[in-house]
Amino acid sequence: MVDNPAVKLLDHAKSPIPYTSLIEEALVIATSFQKKPRPILVVKQNLYTAQRLYERVATLLDEKDCALFGADESLRVEAIASSPELTAQKVETLAGLLSNPNQVVITCPSALLRQLPFPEDFKDRCITIQTGDTLDMHAFKQKLLSGGYQKTSHIDQPLTFAARGGIVDVYSINYDSPIRIEFFDTEVESIRFFDVTTQKTIENTNEVTIIPAGDVFFTDEQIEEICTKSEEILSKENKPILSAEVESDLHALREKVFASHMYSYMALLSKTAGIWDYMQNPLIVYSDEQLILDAAKKLNEETVSYIQEMVQEEKMLPKFAMWHDIHSLSKYGKKVVEDPFTENVVNIEELHIPNETLEQKLLLIHQPMLVVLALSEKEVVTVIDKCVEMKLPYHLLTDDTEPVEGINIYTNSFAQGFYIVDENLKVYTAAEIFAYHHHKGRYENKFRNAEVIHGYDELQPGDYVVHAQYGVGQYICIENREIQKVKRDFLKIIYRGNTELLVPLEQFRLVRKFVSREGVVPKLNKLGSGDWEKTKQRLQSNVEDIAERLLTLYANREQHIGFAFSKDNEMTKKFENSFSFDLTPDQEKA
After folding, report:
1. How high is the pLDDT of residue 80?
2. For the chain, how big is the Rg over CA atoms in Å?
3. Would you say residue 412 has pLDDT above 70?
4. CATH 2.40.10.170 in the chain, residue ranges
5. 3-state SS assignment for residue 491
């Protein structure tokens, strides 16, 4: 690929660069970057195609060398249903570019034209903490708020923080787990990662860097500029509802508490940054230019329409310059254009294979040429077993070996297969061999996992709860107490007679919400009495009755001949392999 004509065009920043498919485009971009690592900003016409291209380029480059910079595709969508996953991806991409600007960044018009904080201001919002540091806890919490973090009572998802006593929990998106920072007065006593579900420590660490939780925040000078211009506009408008809305935002700005809806105030600033400011004179690749210009025009038209609606409803100031001008981007980097209608000199083809059994597919691809199967570890085992069964020769390919004629099996999950005609090389992936695609879902998994806690985080003060040992009580709050010189968090539950029970947070699974018919208020149990035991004994008696009936049922079943499951056949294995997500250890065991 290094001598491919399209790669050479991109190497020398010459237009137009031909392509006919996403995999062809991905191979050209990745090969050019590997030859000469440099900032490359690739623009697709919408978020969907940007994500699809990113999926392909990301499997061809190291993780640190490729990033997606996406955004909701209209202010209306962002206001109604802003995506936390997109926010997380944006801030991690910006933070990564600060330390490594030589990356391939793939974006779309709504993100490309988005106004951003300047890199130095973004860097100022990053917080590096070491054990033993002297740090004012109040100032630390204020800096988290000014970096876009939402304060909650408990950490249950990324981009949030919680504080109680001398402990601050923060979930910074650049880490797989939330961080617990324990203070002794103004000294950072310990830093550790903990599990969001169990609250147990995963590992201790001596240093962490917390990156901002959003891309909407302002410096003192910018806040002053926004307040001055906003008040000038309000003085000319006789709109009390609008004045109340804006004054509320201005108060929050002065307190340095920022939110995503404050992006509209970017339009009041005389100067803002763009993604190119984080990349140091990037090569800007338009793919393809006319579609991008049309999308940018539509974005601006939709924005004007939305702001006009908001102005009529007295919810927004009449300022419309929400985006950078796409026609002025050439001054920020060298521009090249990819064109799908240019004569194709790339000679890379997509692969298509009939939907046959694995055995039939292996027979089809076993040809006198270079054939590489790039698969996950689980898929590699399946294919090797089948090759052995069919007595089909194969070669295990590693990063240190060269492919040979015939079937080469390589442990690496590419997004899509391809055929490089000039090199007589075909690369097949799970998409062709097993007819499914791997889903990374990095950010989605983080936010999804944050919601699986079915315990204390779902409790609100005043909720009725049931403790496995002590019965029905009323949840009051989380309380931090020091026991034997160790600070711990407890669930505080009140019982009849105002007696209290402190449940260690790590034992929250012993406590559940009380469920009853609507409007029914439960009777609280009394600690130390036998009423809860009597209730449990009555329930136990009912359970034993059900168990006896089940035993009778299963005894009758034992007397009859049943049907055992058949041994897994080819169709069963194919069905199991069609599960497109990585199995958990428990699923693998099952």
Report:
1. 65
2. 30
3. yes
4. 456-528
5. strand
Q: Beta strands 179-184 and 167-170: pairing type? A: antiparallel
- CATH 3.40.50.11140 residue spans of the chain: 348-433
Give residue 558's identity as a one-letter amino acid code: E
- What is the rounded distance in angstroms from the CA atom of residue 207 to the CA atom of residue 490? 27
Strands 167-170 and 160-164: antiparallel
In CATH terms, 348-433 corresponds, of 3.40.50.11140, 3.30.1330.30, 3.30.1700.10, 3.90.550.10, to 3.40.50.11140
Question: Which pLDDT score, from 0 to 100, does residue 464 have?
Answer: 81
CA dist 221 to 204, 267, 370, 582, Å?
A: 39, 15, 61, 48
Q: Which SS3 state, helix, strand or coil, does residue 120 take? A: helix
Question: CB under 8 Å to 236, separation ≥6 — which residues?
Answer: none
CATH class of 456-528: mainly beta
- Structural tokens at position 405: 């004629």
pTM: 0.72
Residues of the chain with pLDDT > 90, as a percent, come to 52
Q: Are 11 and 36 in contact (CB under 8 A)?
A: yes
Q: With DSSP H G I counted as helix, E B as strand and the rest as coil, what are the percentages for the chain, rounded to 5?
A: 40, 20, 35
- Out of 362-366, 388-392, 483-487, which region has the weakest mean confidence (pLDDT)? 483-487
Residue range 68-116, pLDDT digits in tens: 999 988 887 787 667 788 899 999 999 999 999 999 999 999 999 999 9
Residue intervals in the chain for CATH 3.40.50.300 = 5-110+273-339
Mean pLDDT (the chain) is: 86
Q: What is the pLDDT of residues 502-546, one digit of tens each?
A: 887 767 667 777 765 445 567 787 887 777 777 767 766 666 777
Task: Work out the number of other CB atoms within 10 angstroms of the CB of residue 69.
Answer: 27
Q: What is the CATH number of domain 127-210?
A: 3.30.2060.10
CATH of domain 5-110+273-339: 3.40.50.300
Residue written as token pair 């997509």 = 350
* Residue 508: closest CA among 453, 548, 444, 461: 453
Closest CA to 45 of 281, 263, 282, 285: 285
356: burial class by Cβ within 10 Å (0-12, 13-18, 19+)?
Answer: exposed
Q: Residues 60-80: pLDDT tens digits?
A: 999 999 999 999 888 877 876
Look up residue 323 and give its DSSP letter.
B
With a CB cutoff of 8 Å and minimum separation 6, the contacts of 432 are 351, 352, 353, 361, 417
Please, which pLDDT band fits residue 450 given cuts at 50, 70 and 90? very low
Beta-carbon contacts of 355 under 8 Å, excluding residues fewer than 6 positions away, are 435
CB 150, CB 159: distance < 8 Å: yes
- Please enumerate in sequence order all residues whose Cβ is within 8 A of that of 328, keeping only pairs 6 or more positions apart, or say none: none
